[in-house]
Amino acid sequence: MSGRELHLNINILNSGFHVAAWRAPGSDPSAFVDVGHYVRTAQIAERGKFDAVFLADVPTFAERPEYRPYQALEPTIILATVAAHTTHVGLIGTASTSFNDPYNIARRFASLDLASNGRVGWNAVTTADASAARNFGLDAALAHRERYERATEFAEVVIGLWDSWEDGALVADKDSGRFVDTGRVRAIDHAGKHFRVRGPLNVPRTRQGRPVLVQAGGSEDGRELAARHAEAIFSVARTQEEGIAFAADVTARARALGRARGPIYLPGLATLIGSTEAEVKRREEELWELFPLEFGLQRIAGTLQIDPARLSYDAPLPADAAIPQDGGHTFAEATLTVALRDGLTVRETLRRLGTGTGHRFLAATPEAVADDIEAWFRSGAADGFNLMPDVLPDGLEIFVDHVVPLLQRKGIFRTDYRGDTLRDHFGLARPENSLVATQRAPVSA
Description:
Blueprint: E1 7-11, H1 35-47, E2 52-55, H2 75-84, E3 90-96, H3 102-115, E4 120-125, H4 130-134, H5 144-162, E5 170-173, E6 178-180, E7 190-191, E8 196-197, E9 212-216, H6 220-229, E10 232-235, H7 240-256, E11 264-273, H8 277-289, H9 293-304, H10 329-341, H11 346-352, E12 360-364, H12 366-379, E13 384-389, H13 394-409, H14 422-426, H15 434-440
Parallel strand pairs: 1-2, 1-13, 2-3, 3-4, 4-9, 9-10, 10-11, 11-12, 11-13
Antiparallel strand pairs: 5-6, 7-8
């Protein structure tokens, strides 16, 4: 393959993207706390030559847990286990910049990157969830602007810590007796508004230089954070026009900041695949019959931050429904766009979203899914997708066995890995050490 290459991640949402996935035949309700389930799913993704597995995270008890499983296990614990049972597939974990400290995150992800031989990425999120804030001694989540201001500084500190060792600083020479060249390890001496961090990190640079930095979100502040620091970005796009505009905007912002390229753009894509249109319809109806409508109504109300009592299953959204100003901007905008553009009722909105919160939902045959992915990729609306099958692991198996071969025949997806690190898969160069580059830069008068 020559030229541009499609990228595919699998977003392992425990039993699957669909709210009723855990009730589907053959699904394991305990998968959300079964590390073996994540390992098996990752191995299927590796068989399909996926770039990476991705784990979301919110450090709180789930919304309406009486209705469905949720993301319970800490992502890096899962990914460390997955790393031990795979050889190539990348490992991207989420960690909040609102409820962690930079040193701990830098150390945790660098350690995982060393343990996996360079396959790790960190998805930096700001976490607007009020219940999560209360788990960390706060009465409410930080205001939107403050969260992103903190996140920007957080990312700068983490990158500095990852680069606090120069390549070659670990000497480990038995003959000379020299272990570390301390002249090539430096403190970062960061003193900012939110953090004071001396450094250096206590582990050396990794095989891929440092973990890949990923950002998720589409708000104005989220785009700025991605443009400044992210090497890949996850967000929501429901039409090719939206995807093209989003990618162009973030790329332009990145170049204005002096970067040679923008982040790899990977919008979410939820899939439900059947061998025929009739099979698609049957699978969709079976899942829909298992879906708790009350939960769906509560989910839309939570996304839009309005009183659930104002919603009715068979009525449209209230005329004054709007995008919340402080958190959840991306999913709220996507939900409103779907519902208002087509005049849908709450029930119809839920079905159009595949019971989700805004990501594009595609229920189709393998041929139609492959054609759709190709059209988005070739138009520049996406560099690839953060894939979310309806039910796991069988929804992913169907994709790997029936969609991946079609993408390979189209000449847009790899037939084998050509490298070992996540940067290799994403086509990203090993980054120069930022602290060394700063030292070489001319000092202004």
